[in-house]
Amino acid sequence: MTKVFPVSASDWAISFSWWGNLRSFPPVWTQLYTDPALIRSYPYLPVLERAINSAQPRPAISDYDQASLAISSSVYQALTDQKDPQQALAEMAAQLTQIISDG
Predict the structure, then answer these.
(1) N or C of the chain: less Cβ packing under 10 Å?
(2) 3 is a domain residue
(3) Spatial distance between the Cα atoms of 10 and 34, rounded to a whole number of angstroms
(4) pLDDT value of position 32
(5) Do residues 49 and 73 both lie within one domain?
(6) What does the H/E/C string look like for the chain?
(7) Per-block average pLDDT, block size 10, for the chain (103 residues)?
(8) Does 59 map to a domain?
(9) How far is CA 52 from CA 16, 26, 31, 47, in A?
(10) 14 and 43 together in one domain
(11) CA angle centred on 31, ends 30 and 37, rounded to 5°
């Protein structure tokens, strides 16, 4: 009889990675983030685990895409010296206030 599944989570993750999926989606089994064999193959796993553990959900607003655009545009303008950071922040705050009140 042929085994369908590997015997351990790390064996499964390593065999799964042959299809490239481990590089596309983070593992859902927490023990994989500390598996030495996997960390040798994927040294970013501990950093990814910290990022996942500290992640926060997106704000629950109906126009999230507009809010995201307002934030990214303002930050970009401040970082590229197109606007003074205080001016960009004030304009972003006004845009976000409008987006939230319209939503």
Answers:
(1) N
(2) no
(3) 10
(4) 86
(5) no
(6) CCCCCCCCHHHHHHHHHCCCHHHHCCCCCHHHHHCHHHHHHCCCHHHHHHHHHCCCCCCCCCCHHHHHHHHHHHHHHHHCCCCCHHHHHHHHHHHHHHHHHHC
(7) 49 50 69 89 88 86 92 96 96 95 84
(8) no
(9) 20, 9, 14, 9
(10) yes
(11) 130
Residue type, 2: T
Residues 46 and 68 grouped into a single domain: no
Cβ contacts of 83 within 8 Å, gap of 6 or more: 74, 77, 91
Domain containing 73 equals 64-102
Q: Are residues 71 and 93 in the same domain?
A: yes
Domain count, the chain: 2
Residue 40 falls inside a structural domain? yes
